[in-house]
DNA sequence: AAGTTGACCTCTC
DNA sequence: CGAGAGGCCAACT
C-alpha cells in the first residue's frame, strides 16, 4: 500500500481552502487534483481528520453532500450564494475548477 | 491479524 | 432515467 503523505492531505486541505464562497467542489475532483488514487480517501480525510476548513463546500458528484449533513451543507451554501435546486447544487455553475 | 466501515465514483443492466 | 454491483485506500474494532 502507499500510505498517504501529509503532502497529499495538505493538498486536499489547500484545495478546499482555496474554494471561494459561493462555489463548491466534488470529491472526485479534489482527489484527482490532490493526486490521490481514489476519491474515497478524500471522504476519509474529512471523516477522520476534520479540520477548520469549510468541508461543507465539498459535495458529491450528485450535487449533494452526505445525507445527514446535506441539510446543513445546503443551508450554508445557500447563505454563501450557491444556487441549490431542490436540494441539489448546480455543479455546472457552482463547481470550482482548479 | 482480519474484517468491517466510511462523508465516494463509475460502469452496467 | 433508476437501481445494482464493483473497486479503491485507510482507519477503527
Order of helical and strand elements: HEHHEHEEH
Figure out the total of helices: 5
Q: Which architecture name does CATH use?
A: Orthogonal Bundle
CATH class: Mainly Alpha
Strand order of the largest sheet: 1-2
Low-confidence runs: none
Number of strands: 4
Q: Indicate the structural class.
A: mainly alpha
Rg, Cα atoms, Å = 13 Å
Mean pLDDT: 88
List keywords for this structure.
single chain; 98 residues; mainly alpha; Arc Repressor Mutant, subunit A; two-stranded parallel sheet; two-stranded antiparallel sheet; 5 helices; DNA-binding; methyltransferase; ATL_DNA_repair; WH-like_DNA-bd_sf
Summarize the structure.
This is DNA methyltransferase. With 98 residues, the chain is mainly alpha-helical.
Give a structural overview:
- The protein has 98 residues and is mainly α.
- The protein has a single domain (6-88), classed as Arc Repressor Mutant, subunit A.
- The chain is built from 5 helices and 4 strands; from the N terminus they run αβααβαββα.
- The chain has helices at 6-17, 27-34, 39-48, 67-80, 91-94, and strands at 25-26, 58-59, 84-85, 88-89.
- The strands form 2 sheets. The chain has a two-stranded parallel ribbon with strand order 1-2.
- α1 (6-17) packs across α2 and α2 packs across α3.
- The protein is globular, with a radius of gyration of 13 Å.
- The structure holds a DNA duplex (13 and 13 nucleotides).
Amino acid at each position: 500500500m502507499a500510505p498517504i503523505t501529509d503532502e497529499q492531505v495538505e493538498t486536499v486541505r489547500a484545495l478546499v481552502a482555496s474554494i471561494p464562497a459561493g462555489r463548491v467542489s466534488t470529491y472526485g475532483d479534489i482527489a484527482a487534483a490532490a493526486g490521490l488514487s481514489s476519491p474515497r480517501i478524500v471522504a476519509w480525510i474529512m471523516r477522520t481528520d476534520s479540520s477548520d476548513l469549510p468541508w461543507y463546500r465539498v459535495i458529491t458528484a450528485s450535487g449533494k453532500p452526505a445525507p445527514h449533513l446535506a441539510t446543513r451543507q445546503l443551508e450554508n451554501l445557500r447563505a454563501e450564494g450557491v444556487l441549490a435546486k431542490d436540494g441539489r447544487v448546480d455543479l455546472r455553475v457552482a463547481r470550482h475548477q482548479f
